[in-house]
């Protein structure tokens, strides 16, 4: 089986990396193409995953449009040379149309309800789209729902064991209380018109948390000089280990909020996109693992309150254990998807994908 994974964001590296490794070990031919986005290439290199770099997508609306066309042309050349049996991507606005033109099968993963523009570009061209069970959009007969999160593909205890040695990279000791803070740039196309922490809000947040212990910041945006000393020192691949040992997480990054919750760390999210994400609704209302706040001050107070609660971490760990036990092993499902598609004597269909995800076709 020849499979191409197209990666446009650092989170996609984490989502697919274990499946990529297992497929390669099972003698499938795997190729990865990637955009030069944030720390995407750093992560691929850190995990030893060979890749073809397609370039940047741009930051402005016009820049993204131009970047999509330029990287799409490069991807078309790669597809023509590699001739994959299957193309896999997350909201594959670039990969799906190119795969269709090249007569290649494309399957999508999507967990972002408000990514409307990306779905307009990829939905006509995919054979299946995998979403969490609680995903808040109906995508028709090609949609396959599973019990889980993108993040469970790499944070499931089967794949991830927290490593306390990363604490030393940040000058922390085992058992020392500390907070992890995440600030994102809000430049993704689906984040247009949405807001996160303001410059002043970032400073107030860190100041409030610093009264109760160390603060480690992971940031896509440039930090003011007053916050530079709080910037994460270690490698980008160690952030999940930090999250696992943190006393509390707070930020405006949706992916890291979900990661913190799945690692049993009290998670506080501030941002206008919060009410739109069914993942957050499920984590908050169904499992009490996330607190969504509608104002900066509320988020600051909530995070400080959890940081001062000596039992908060224990409660979160118990809750996350119950949740993780109910989740689909997404990496297993991705591997089955590829291998089921490869063993099918007929053309790939929605039945193939449902079979791979252990669901009744019902058709």
User: Are there runs of 5+ residues with pLDDT below 50, and where?
Assistant: 359-363
Q: Please give the count of helices.
A: 15
Estimate the strand proportion: 15-25%
Number of domains: 2
**Which CATH class of the largest domain is shown?**
Alpha Beta
- Overall spatial form: globular
CATH topology of the largest domain: Rossmann fold
Structural class: alpha/beta
Q: Which percent range fits the helix content?
A: 40-55%
- Secondary-structure element sequence? EHEHEHEHEHEEHHEHEHEHEHEHHHH
Strand order of the largest sheet: 3-2-1-4-5-6-7
| Strand element count | 12
Commentary on this structure:
This protein is an alpha/beta fold. 42% of the residues lie in helices and 17% in strands. It has two domains: 2-155 and 328-356, Glycogen Phosphorylase B (Rossmann fold, 3-Layer(aba) Sandwich); 166-325, 3-Layer(aba) Sandwich (Rossmann fold). The strands form two sheets. A seven-stranded parallel beta sheet has the order 3-2-1-4-5-6-7, sandwiched between helices. Helix 8 (199-210) links the parallel strand 8 and strand 9 (214-219). The protein is globular, with a radius of gyration of 20 Å. The model is unreliable at 359-363 (pLDDT under 50).
């Amino acid at each position: 089986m020849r499979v191409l994974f197209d990666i446009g964001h650092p989170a996609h590296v984490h989502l697919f990396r274990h499946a990529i490794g297992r497929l390669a070990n099972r003698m499938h031919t795997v190729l990865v193409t990637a955009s030069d986005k944030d720390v995407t290439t750093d992560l691929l290199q850190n995990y030893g995953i060979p890749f073809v770099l397609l370039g940047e997508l741009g930051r402005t609306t016009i820049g993204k449009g131009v970047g999509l066309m330029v990287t799409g042309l490069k991807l078309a050349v790669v597809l023509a040379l590699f001739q994959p049996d299957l193309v896999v991507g997350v909201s594959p606005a670039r990969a799906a149309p190119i795969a269709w033109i090249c007569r290649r099968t494309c399957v999508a993963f999507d967990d972002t309800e408000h990514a409307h523009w990306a779905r307009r570009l990829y939905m006509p061209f995919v054979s299946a789209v995998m979403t969490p069970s609680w995903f808040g959009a109906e995508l028709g007969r090609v949609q396959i729902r599973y019990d889980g999160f993108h993040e469970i593909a790499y944070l499931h205890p089967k794949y991830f064991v927290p490593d306390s040695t990363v604490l030393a990279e940040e000058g922390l000791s085992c058992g020392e209380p500390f907070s992890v803070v995440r600030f994102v740039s809000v430049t993704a196309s689906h984040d247009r018109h949405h807001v996160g922490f303001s410059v002043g809000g970032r400073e107030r947040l860190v100041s409030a948390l610093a009264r109760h212990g160390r603060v480690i910041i992971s940031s896509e945006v440039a930090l003011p000089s007053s916050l530079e000393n709080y910037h994460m020192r270690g490698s980008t691949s160690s952030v999940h280990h930090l999250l696992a040992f943190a006393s509390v997480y707070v930020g405006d990054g949706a992916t890291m909020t979900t990661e913190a919750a799945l690692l049993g760390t009290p998670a506080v999210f501030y941002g206008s996109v919060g009410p739109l994400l069914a993942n957050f609704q499920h984590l908050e209302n169904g499992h009490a693992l996330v607190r969504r706040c509608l104002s900066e001050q509320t988020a600051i107070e909530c995070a400080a309150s959890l940081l001062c609660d000596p039992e908060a971490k224990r409660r979160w760990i118990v809750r996350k254990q119950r949740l993780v036990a109910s989740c689909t092993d997404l990496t297993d499902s991705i591997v089955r998807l590829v291998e089921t598609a490869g063993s099918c004597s007929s053309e790939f269909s929605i039945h193939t994908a449902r079979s791979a995800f252990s669901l009744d076709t019902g058709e």
